[in-house]
Amino acid sequence: MTTPYLTERRDELLRCYRDDLLHDVMPFWLRHGIDREQGGVLSALGRRGEVVDTDKAVWIQGRAAWMFGTLHNTVERRPEWLEASLSCARFLRDRCTAPSGKLYFTVTREGKPLRMRRYVYSESFAAIGYGEAFRATGEVEWRDRALAAFDLYVKFSREPGHIPPKVEPATRPTRGIGPLMILLVTAQDLRECVGDVVVRGRSLTDWAAVACEEIVQFFCKPDLKVVMEQVGPNGEVYDHFDGRLLNPGHAIEAAWFVLREARRRGDRVLARTALDMLDWMWERGWDREHGGLLYFVDLMGKPVQEYWHFQKFWWPHNEAIIATLLAHLHTGDAKYAEMHRKVHDWTYAHFPDREHGEWFGYLDRQGRVTTELKGNMWKGPFHMPRQKLVCWNLLEGRG
Amino acid sequence: MTTPYLTERRDELLRCYRDDLLHDVMPFWLRHGIDREQGGVLSALGRRGEVVDTDKAVWIQGRAAWMFGTLHNTVERRPEWLEASLSCARFLRDRCTAPSGKLYFTVTREGKPLRMRRYVYSESFAAIGYGEAFRATGEVEWRDRALAAFDLYVKFSREPGHIPPKVEPATRPTRGIGPLMILLVTAQDLRECVGDVVVRGRSLTDWAAVACEEIVQFFCKPDLKVVMEQVGPNGEVYDHFDGRLLNPGHAIEAAWFVLREARRRGDRVLARTALDMLDWMWERGWDREHGGLLYFVDLMGKPVQEYWHFQKFWWPHNEAIIATLLAHLHTGDAKYAEMHRKVHDWTYAHFPDREHGEWFGYLDRQGRVTTELKGNMWKGPFHMPRQKLVCWNLLEGRG
Fold first, then answer.
1. Which helix or strand (DSSP H or E) is residue B90 part of?
2. pLDDT at B399 over 80
3. C-alpha A294 chain-centroid distance
């Protein structure tokens, strides 16, 4: 499907998505990030790719294994992509796993443990990294590891008792949208690698359905036109800082995960909800004064406690570029073309480093770069190259 | 002692310190913050003093008990100050204490537990709050509680095993300057209330000496001209994000705590070190481009991972105003007068809310207000009014 907007911009967008991905972003990470001595990926890189910190983020090992693996498995079977993906998968397996089987959050360059955290996102990202390693090599060990990591993710994030809650549940029981979004996208991505297998009694498609259902049931509030980040056990809105805190980029990311699932199963009602999620959170997050997406906003327009709320982070922009493009392709609606144009243009005017390649990650409200880092414990080869790949696929009629 | 600088600015500074304290800041918190229904203080206040979140920060209960109590005990015996102080002290005692005796980090308005944290700053601030309650009332219960809270603080922060470390100590053992700074200032402030009593085998003065000694021994690096935030067990510098992370305002706060102790005991060598601490961290933290103190900088000028590093927070400016004024009074050196002028003028040009009173807490690098909040879980009636009181005392030749 194409549209006047996409006909007009197709070449330019392909340059930004396909060409930058292949010629700028992935080469940057291959050249500077992949650790040829110890394996895995070093993500704390300065403006020119110099290593600023050798400690390794475990999230990013899984995400890089996935990104390089996906490229190898779906774009072109390039040996350097395979090698990078497997290097990260092996580092995860051999150097990031605690005796309990749970993964650390950070380790040293060599893989000595630094931090263990309560939650299990390291596991979800490992699952998709191992999944791509299986798809690339056909070695069942990687499939088994992928399913075991997903199993642990589901167990910890859904069975009470495994993750000590931050806030006393007897006083204020809460549920967050984060674990459901990650359940959804992990089930989706893993399904591409290992097929629609059963884990903990449900197929991956059923886990994706559970996640969509609970996101809609507990976090989407049509009366308030909002996607909440944190609610009570039955979706109650808590009138406190944390309860009112909205993360528009995060909710917009959830919107395209849900829209993708709705399109796959031909569910028009769910697709409509996903479009609502995007509409609501665009309305709340887009900065009419300076452009770009605000990081946090308050449900009731009250001041936000988190003091970095006004900054423009790279990843919400990536998620909004995907969501608006997918929404435009799904509906043909010119409204989404206009939103895509806005967020694409603002993003590409502010984040890319024209001189040394890759992107800056953090801007102030006005769009000025606030740090020269190309990566850190949270920014690695993931949100931005994923956006480029997903959008390239969309422009080519895939997905 | 006076100086040409202070002679010239005395009236203006007294207006900013004494008059604003008495006529703007404390009335703001008395009117809007003190919770006349449930006791204690509500700190999450909007621009006009409206309550934005009713949850209560336990740190701030202790700090407000101290602030109001100090005013009552050292400035004037105003009943409303006493009442506010005791309201916070009672709320701490009755509604913030876990069955284990440890204090929570946040509770609901009524005092139901919300968050418990690993560390023990709630206890240190409770100690000084209870201390002022004792000084005001003479009731030994408050003295006993103050000493018990200090005892627990010392035990947890100095005996291994009570606070699970964030980073695996077998891989990278670390010590932070924070617990020593708080040990020092808590011992100092408590000594004013209960005298130089013995706790866990040492007098408060000896605890202050231990803190000064360890700050100098482990965190001050004359060769690098820096005060570190976090080092190895023997003061080793770790060349990683966290190891290189400097917080100039925090170190400048430490500098005046140390200088105050050095003056008290007539220790000229220690005073010289405190002045070095101030000099080094002013040099590293002062923003030559836009003025004000940067929140975080890197030891080696590398990029900082914490994405709010460039913001201007209120409290480092308060600490620098005290430190430069005390250094000027101690030395008579015009250099410190110039530093005081710079930080005072920048601070008072950017943070106060001329329309609705009190201060904004968070600015961007250029000095623009980024949130209208007057308080939150970290900002309450403490750093800023303490600065005004300490500086007023200094101008009057006290301290």
1. helix B79-95
2. no
3. 17
Residue whose token pair is 């006791």: B39
CA distance B291 to B342: 8
Q: How far apart (Å, rounded) are the C-alpha atoms in residues B212 and B209?
A: 5
CB pairs under 8 A between A and B: 108
B116 touches chain A (CB under 8 A): yes
- Average pLDDT along chain A: 97
Between CA B382 and CA B397 the distance in angstroms is: 22
Q: What is the DSSP letter of A369?
A: B
Q: How would residue A385 be classed by pLDDT, with cut points 50, 70 and 90?
A: very high
Decide if A52 and B241 are in contact by the 8 Å CB cutoff: yes
Q: How many CB atoms lie within 10 A of CB A138?
A: 9
- Residue type present at position A147: L
Residue linked to tokens 């809310």: B353
Residue B362 pLDDT exceeds 90: yes
Q: Does B110 lie at the interface with A, CB-CB under 8 angstroms?
A: no
Question: pTM higher than 0.95, yes or no?
Answer: yes
Structure tokens at B263: 């003056």
Burial A28-67 (b: 16+ CB within 10 A, else e): bbbebbbbeeebbbbbbbbbebeebbebbbbbbbbbbbbb
Q: What is the pLDDT of residues B212-254, one digit of tens each?
A: 999 999 999 999 999 999 999 999 999 999 999 999 999 999 9
pLDDT digits (tens, 9 = 90+) for A354-372: 999 999 999 999 999 999 9
Nearest-neighbour CA in chain B from A321: distance (Å): 23
Would you tell me which residues 303-322 of chain A have a C-beta closer than 8 angstroms to some C-beta of chain B? Answer: 303-305, 307-311, 313
What is the C-alpha to C-alpha distance for residues A320 and A292, in angstroms, rounded to an integer?
10
Residues of chain B found within 8 Å of residue A310, distances taken between Cβ atoms = 364, 370-371
Question: Per-residue DSSP letters for A327-361?
Answer: HHHHH--HHHHHHHHHHHHHHHHHSB-TTTSSB--
